[in-house]
Amino acid sequence: MSIVVTGATGHLGRLAIQSLLAKGVPASEIVGLGRSVDKIADLGITVKQVAYEDPEALRAAFEGADKVLFISGSEAGQRMAQHTNVVAAAKAANVGLLVYTSIPKADTSDLKLAEEHRATENLIVESGLPYAFLRNSWYFENYNVAQGLEHGLFGASADGKISAATRADYAEAAAAVLTTDGQAGKVYELGGQGFTMEEFAAEIAAQSGQPVTYTDLGEDKYREMLVGVGLPEAFAAILADSDRGAANGGLYVPVDDLESLLGRPATSLKSYVGTALKA
Fold first, then answer.
1. In 3-state terms, what secondary structure has residue 172?
2. In sequence order, what are the beta bridge partners of 48?
3. pLDDT tens, residue by residue, 109-130
4. Could you name the domain of life of the organism this protein comes from (predicted)?
C-alpha cells in the first residue's frame, strides 16, 4: 500500500504522517509532499519537494498511489487553481482514494471560507475518483489562551457553538480513514464538543483563577480590530465572516463522526485550556 500526503510539511500534514506511523503503516509506504521538506525529514518516510502549482510534479508523485490525503491549500483566493492541479494529477495517476480536508457543511454553508471548499468537493466528485471528505471544523489552536488570559477574548460569534478539536485529533481521524477499507463516498462532519466563546473565557478563568471576559464586537468591528492588530484586510474579513457564520451555527457539528473515527473522546475544552496554560 502506498499513501501520499500532500501539504505534509504543515502542522496537520506532519501530524497525519505521525498518526499513520502510529497505526503501523510502514514508513516505506508513506510519501510526504511539500515545500519545506526539511520539516519532515526526521520521520523516515519518502519525502518529495512538490508544490500545488506544479501539476507535472504532482502527477509523478501520485503515480502508483493507493490513497492520497489531500490537505487543502492555506492561501485563500489561490486554492482553486492549486486544487484543480491536485485533482487533475490524481485523476491522471488513477489514485485509489482521494481524501480531502474540507469545512463543515461545505455543500450548504454560507461562510466565505466554504466557497473554495465546496467548489473543490464538486471538482473531486466530477472527476469520478473514489473519494472521502473530512469536513474539519475549527482547530483549538486557532485560539491563543495566553493572549486571552492577558487581554480577554474577542470575536463576533455571539452565543453560537463552535465544534473545535485539536489538529492532532483531526490528523488521527484522517489516518483512521486512510487505514480503513470501505471509505469511498464517505463524508465526515468532524468537530469536538461544542462551546460558546463565553464558555471558552469562563474555562480559562476557572483554571487560571483570573477573570477572563469575552467581548462580542459584531462582524464589522471585529474585522476592524483584526486589521488593527496587523492582519491583512482579506484574511481579517474571512475570519470575521467565519465568526458571523458561527453565530448562526456554521461551525457546529455533532461530535459523533470524530469520536467514531478516533475510537475515543475528542480533546475537550477543559483539557485544551489546561494544556495551554501549562505551556
1. helix
2. 33
3. 999 999 999 999 999 999 999 9
4. Bacteria
Q: Give the total residue count for the chain.
A: 279
In 74-201, where do the E strands start and end? 97-102, 131-136, 153-155, 186-190
Question: Mean per-residue pLDDT for 4-13?
Answer: 96
- pLDDT single digits (tens) 120-158: 999 999 999 999 999 999 999 999 999 999 999 999 999
Q: CB of 79 within 8 A of CB of 116?
A: yes
Across the chain, what does the average pLDDT equal?
A: 96
What is the domain partition of the chain in residue ranges? 3-137+166-189+254-264
Rounded distance between C-alpha atoms, residue 142 and residue 134, angstroms: 18
Helix (H, G, I), strand (E, B) or coil at 1: coil
Digit-coded pLDDT (tens) for 167-214: 999 999 999 999 999 999 999 999 999 999 999 999 999 999 999 999
3-state secondary structure of 273: helix
**Could you tell me which CATH class the domain 3-137+166-189+254-264 is placed in?**
alpha beta
CA of 120: how far to CAs of 126, 199, 272, in Å?
A: 10, 34, 31
**Which residues, 6 or more positions from 141, have their beta carbon under 8 angstroms from its beta carbon?**
11, 166, 167
- The SS3 call for residue 189 is strand
